[in-house]
Amino acid sequence: MSATLVQTASNRLCHTIIPSTFLKSAIEKLVNYRVGALPVVDQSKALKGIISERDIIRQLHLSNNINDLQVGCVMTRNVITCNLDARANEVMEIMTKYRIRHVPITEGKKLLGIISIGDVVSRLLKRYKDEAELLKSYINS
Q1: Do 66 and 37 meet the contact criterion of CB atoms below 8 Å apart?
Q2: CB 104 within 8 A of CB 81
Q3: Could you give the CA distance from residue 137 to residue 13 in angstroms, rounded to a whole number?
């Protein structure tokens, strides 16, 4: 049996950040890693929050001076997560319901990885492509 989308995402590199990091460093990480969000973890890799482009834009709207702010002051604390058993369609429903683009994968409080809306869309496109190929094969046989 092949791994699910969530299981696959949990096995790849997940860039994280700690709450005491200055916001400028978080922005640099987002840009350098070309990601839209970073899970915020403590020293034991327990999930404490998430910082996204939206969190940063919201803070910029509230204050022009973000140089002295730390990630812990800006991050979203009530993080919507999923576990390893979540299916792609469940993650898609979570993203739609809560209007979010990144869902950390956790086991208890421990961060295992993160799944993005791009991951979900890629999985859907692959599924549709595979179905189209099966239909073509069936029609041509």
Answers
A1: no
A2: yes
A3: 37
Q: Give the integer Cα–Cα distance in Å for 38 and 84.
A: 19
> What is the Cα–Cα distance from 114 to 62, expressed in whole angstroms?
28
Burial 18-34 (b: 16+ CB within 10 A, else e): bbebebeebeebbeeee
> How many other CB atoms are found less than 10 A from the CB of residue 101?
16
**Token duo for residue 19:** 């709450």
Cα(18)–Cα(41) distance, integer angstroms: 5
Model-level pTM? 0.86
Q: Strand 102-107 relative to strand 110-116: parallel, antiparallel, unpaired?
A: antiparallel
92: Cα within 13 Å, side-chain hemisphere: 11
Ramachandran category for residue 53: left, alpha or beta (phi over 0 → left; psi -120 to 50 → alpha): alpha
Q: Looking at residue 138, what is its pLDDT?
A: 79
pLDDT in tens, 111-137: 999 999 999 988 888 887 878 888 788
Residue 11 tokens read as 């096995």
The 10s digit of each residue's pLDDT in 62-99 is 887 788 899 999 999 999 999 999 999 999 999 999 99
